[in-house]
Amino acid sequence: MKVSIDPKYCVGHGMCHLNAPDVFGLDDDGHGVALEGEIPSALRESARLGSESCPQQAISIEE
Amino acid sequence: MQQVRTIDIDINGEDYVRRPLDMEAAAREAGPVAWTESNGGHWMVSRHAAVIEGLRDADTYSTEKFLDENGQLAGGIMIPTVPFYRYLPNESDPPAWNGFRKSIAGHLSPGSVERLQPVIDQYTAEVIDEMIELGEADFVMQVGSPVTAKVTLHLLGLPTEDWKFYAKPIHLLFADGASAGPGVAAIQERLSSTITERRAAPQRGMIDDLIATELDYGPMSDEDVKDLVFDVMVGGFDTVAGLMAGSLQWLQDKPDLKTRLLEDDEFLQTATEEFLRYISPAVGLSRTATTDYPIADQQMHKGDRMYFMYRSANWDPAEFDEPETMRLDRRPNRHVAFGAGIHRCVGSNLARSIFQTVLRQFLTRVTDYEVVDFEQYKMTNNNAGFARMIMRYTPGTRIDSSAR
User: Fold this and answer.
1) 3-class DSSP state of B345
2) Which of B8, B246, B288, B377 has its CA 20 to 30 A from that of B271?
3) Which Gene3D superfamilies does its entry note (chain B) (predicted)?
């Protein structure tokens, strides 16, 4: 599984970080930063929750 | 081609003031997006998915004011258009928006807010000291508004002892718009003269950084700085105060939840989002379509006014299970209490921190408060909150935070 955030749509709600801090961080402006590379299986559910929590639907998951 | 859905709702009418939640439910019932002829005619974007869809692409809408074909001022974030002042960056479009937004975003970023936390703690303690011995107080103007105003003024680099001069008219703007005029005019004048002084003799505050900002086309104008500072104040003061007041009112007879909020950080976080969703201090704001584009099954046309209904979206049963029930551990919680799209609230990190700090300090120090009287805002289509919320409690003691 890979996770990516589309910077065109991310406006810094911060909900991904709030719901899945182990997968999503925040940059200095409060925009989401996703864990790079393959998401370890233990974090996949968390990644899905973080992605679903984005009000901008800016996060895509590649299974 | 889909038929145009219509609904007969006047968002400035008496019915809407009296029964806003019913009217919003009726709007959602009519469809994700529906047209009303009231207030010059505009779309009502009421369902969660439609609000997100309609605000996702910044090229499709404008928030700037402009002169229409009859020479009348039109556009902006309110219906009807408010002529007296411009909110910045709210009422600007890219590319100008980029520079305006950037100039304040850094001051309100998660990192900046974290560095501000000791200041938030301090003002909260100080403000509670001022009311704790009284036994009865108006939470809105004696706790919620002063803490938010003082922290914001501190950040801006303006004298915090002047908080009432700024906070009272801004409170009136929401609570009773008709009487806010003179106070708001005085704020505008004071800001203009302060900006002139500070351009000549800079100090160290956000206002000085704004004055020194270079935009793509030259230095930030005094007018721009004034409009940015005013928007920060209007966006922050009463919205956060209303969120606190509504949350504490709801919590007053729930001792177990109060205890859990004090002990469990994660619960405090999800609870904050749920209070935001349920109370929705920002009820809705407007945009003008810059192009023909669809939202859900309705076709917007260039120049159409669109009212994006954040609270209605936050109470949409298609998105939230039992939206009328407060569930402090709700997750995911994709509320749009801070709006959506490029104009989403830039102060959200500060708002959350101030809210959480006040909630915890207040619940710790004022353990037995009871709301004995309250009055909601008269104006309801942009903001929800309280003209006043009188609480009675056993008087406590100061912790003498004045010795700073």
Assistant:
1) coil
2) B377
3) Cytochrome P450
**Is the CB of B52 less than 8 angstroms away from the CB of A14?**
no
Name the residue range of residue A51's domain. 1-60
Whether ipTM > 0.85 holds is no
CB contact under 8 A, A12 and B348: yes
DSSP codes of every residue in B315-342: T-TTTSSSTTS--TT--S----TT--ST
On the question of a cis peptide bond just before residue A55, with omega within 30 degrees of 0, the verdict is no
Per-residue pLDDT tens for B263-276?
A: 999 999 999 999 99
Q: What is the pLDDT of residues B227-238, one digit of tens each?
A: 999 999 999 999
Q: Residue B279: what pLDDT?
A: 97
Q: Give the H or E element holding residue B173.
A: helix B163-175
Across the range B359-374, mean pLDDT stands at 98
Average pLDDT over residues B247-257: 98
Number of domains in chain A: 1
Token pair of B172 as six digits? 């009136």
How far, in Å, CA of A63 to CA of A3, rounded?
9
Tokens read off for B239: 């919205």
Note the Cα A51 to chain centre separation in Å: 5
Query: Domains of chain B by range and CATH?
Result: 14-392 (1.10.630.10)
The C-alpha R_g of chain A, in whole angstroms, comes to 10
Q: Determine contact: A15 vs chain B, CB below 8 A.
A: yes
Give chain B's mean pLDDT. Answer: 95
Report the b/e string of B123-136 with b at 16+ CB within 10 A.
bbbbbbbebbeeee
Whether this model's pTM surpasses 0.90 = yes
pLDDT of B2 higher than 80: no
In terms of Cα–Cα distance, which of B215, B237, B233 is closest to B224? B215
How far apart CA B62 and CA B77 sit, in angstroms, is 9
Contact B255, B185 (CB under 8 A): no
Q: What is the CATH number of the domain that holds A19?
A: 3.30.70.20
pLDDT digits (tens, 9 = 90+) for A40-50: 999 999 999 99
